[in-house]
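ingest -> validate -> predict -> emit
validate: passed (alphabet ok, no gaps, 637 aa)
predict: started
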Amino acid sequence: MRLFSSLSELERKKLIEERKKSSLYWKIIHLLGSLRLAIVLLLSIALGCAIATIVESRLDTQVAQFYIYKSPWFFGWLIILCINLFAVTLTRIPWKKRHIGFIVTHYGIIILLIGALIGLQKGFEGFITLEAGGIPKNRLTSKETVLLVQNPILKEIEEYRFPAELWRPSSKAPRSIDIPGTGLKFYTDDYAKELFLSENLSPQQNSGSPGVLIELKSKMANQKFTYVLLKNDPSRWYEDFFGMARIEMKEPSDSDGETFHESAVLFANAPDQSVIHAHEGVNSTYKYFLLWDNPSPSNRSLYVVAISQDGEKRAWPLNEIMQKVVDLPGEGKMEVAEYWPNFSIKEGKPTSLSGEPLNPAILVHVYWQQNRTQKLVFRIWDSPNGTINYQLLRNGKSYQEGQMAIGKTFLLGWADWSATLLRYEPSATITSEIQKQRLSQANIAQVLPPGIHGWIEDKQTKEKSQALWILSGYPQSFVLNNIPLQISFGFKVISLPFFVSLEKFEVPRNEGSDAPSDFISTLKFEDPKTKKIVIGKAHMNYPASYPGGFWRSVLGLNYKFSQSSWNPQDLNESTLQVLYDPGWPFKWIGSLMICIGILTMFFISPKPPVVLDKEESAGAKTDEKAACSTLNSRSLS
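emit:
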């Protein structure tokens, strides 16, 4: 069938009607291209977009994207709209010259919608935080949360979209995921935006240390805190009280040096996600990392790198400093206490799933001294006869002493703060547990990231594993039917095919004030394959593009780095938003076609009918009758 035809309008309409009646194929085409279907689709999409706009303004962009923009029904509606637009153009076949603008406009809308669908499916938005002079990074963090399951049967890591905060699981409505090839199912029945690592004092014969569980309380401040102290543990004999005082369990001595302690868990696969705990509330000025010396998995070693505040760097092979104390730049000392080749958290405690260095992590302790005098000290120690003594010091001098009894409260002389001895164990250890809510008699050692609570279940026997919390960014291990599973929950990580680092971060100010006039990040991009280095700058309203170039931008092949946020306390840190949209060429081609099609409809239009006045119309009728009589006489003759 010819697409264009010189048939008259009457003949063309007659052909379309006959074709629609005689062919099932054309009946379906006309049904898909009907005006009623187009109106229903457009009204539904408009309603969905209006609801999404309200949700986005009142709740969050992620909620609008999950329930509308990135939902299956919205994708389906857009696909049906594309089919409707395409079918509309087919119903006009055979086309006439005046249909060109109509066709180009409709196909432009289809191409534009295809570009939007590609952008939603293949494109992404992520964020990366860089430090000036820091290590290059190639991993972004998106706002979408996922669940990663390391399947030992299929020997692969499976990723599942898991927006726990948007669609919260509960004990009444748990969410589940089938684990292919294992006969197992993962269930989760709770989500917490904030978790607590609570510590308690537990008796441990022979190998334990004397320990106390003590509570500090203020009625005026309406606050209550608990602390767990071990007398002979170098990392747990003291705790900081908001930087104003120190609570310690030690024997009185003539010389009390000011030694500070910081612990950190370092990850080789995620150097920027170290977990650091300052035991006295005072952070060191050091930065330290666990790094690979070679990107190739077949031939590489682990190194511990430390950087002082002055920028002095030192590096040691991990295998040479394990269980040893090394000198840091300056006067600090560092001890590598633990090493986990394949780090995971099991039953709230760190462990290694195997001896292979798949997810290496280490625990380091850093000690240093500062010239700072502790104004207030609350000291506790036990006597050989089992009595618990205390001493209160101000500026190094004792102002109150006495003995403590379990359950008895006394004032500390710090406003209305009081202390109560909750528990004493002559030989004890500290046990930790992840909790969703604060416990009344436990020390909150650390506020943890979000997490989900889940377990593994056999689909046939219904046998269950222990239910555990899976913290965001920390894998958890489950074993059932002798099948070890490693499950991780957290923000989706997007890997870039190149590395980016921050060379310099500048914050120009408005003249005569401290208000920022711009944010400028000087970025260095490096391709690991070609070793090519490109320098770019991201301004407040002007992104940096990599690999760069006009045609790459037109074809949607550029990654755009825009200034997202900054840290006023650290001007060497910059957070950037990274956008990648492979559907961009379809969007601008479709938009261009829509504009051309609309212009064409104005220039190529059917000629208006000629309107005759009454005299011309009467004359035309007389001429028509005369012509008919002439033809009749000729035919008779």
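The chain has a mean pLDDT of 84.
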